[in-house]
Amino acid sequence: MNEQLVFTASVAGFEMDYMKFGRGPKTLVILPGMSLMSVMPMAPLCAGAYHCFTEDYTVYLFDRRKEFGLGYSVEDMAADTALVMKSLGIAHADIMGFSQGGMMAESIAENHPNLVRKLVLGSTFSRANAVSNAVFDKWIRWTLEGKIETLISDFVDKLYTERTAELCRRSVIEANRGATSRDREKFIAMAEACKAFDGYEALAKIKCPTLVLGAALDKVLVADSSVEMYDKLKSCGVPCELYIYEDYNHAVYDEAPDYRKRVLEFLRKM
Predict the structure, then answer these.
(1) How far is 211 from 116, CA to CA, in rounded Å?
(2) If we measure between CA atoms, which residue out of 159, 176, 151 comes closest to residue 253?
(3) Are 101 and 124 in contact (CB under 8 A)?
(4) Among candidate residues 80, 90, 37, the one with its CA nearest the CA of residue 59
(5) What is the percent of the chain with per-residue pLDDT over 90, rounded to a whole number?
(6) What is the pLDDT of residue 1?
(7) Is the per-residue pLDDT at 99 higher than 80?
């Protein structure tokens, strides 16, 4: 019998789906970036991809709450995730966030420090920039116009290296053909939330050890954003590390063969 991987938490009047796998004694929380459709159907693939963590950790990967609309901020997403974590008895966890998930991870570490032992911020930023806003504006326009194939094709180009983009473009487009009008509305809300996010000064509230990982070829949030976060954290006395992958794009967390090993080595340090 296949192991159940996807569950639903109900708390404070909303529901949130999450994956759970691994049986390790420590807890790892993964917060993914924005997507047109939920990543929950990909639970078996995610469990396989993060298998190297499952001896040390019980892993939770959280979706956004099931229902939200425009005005649902990154801080709101983080607050909802923190509520669900508390409802599941999760505290003093290691949290790894990618892209928008990294913004959420920052907010959780700032406002709920008792929930976080160590923090990993991958391909993310602490405040929007001209490059990111231009990308999000284009994605929002195409979504409003119903140009989903154009949107997803550009999404793939902006996230992956050229070789990987060409290999996976058609399958990713096909996987998103079933996106509903509600999926599109939520995608726009997530993009608007990224544009509105400004957590740069709040980084000073983070106290836990933090690993910042960026990609030199990032076409969405740009590598300078990772450097900016690291410099701010370091200036505030946060024990932090920075590594920039030179030959990778935004989704380096999916492509670089040593990415998860690097994260695990950081988390295993005392």
Answers:
(1) 13
(2) 159
(3) yes
(4) 90
(5) 99
(6) 38
(7) yes
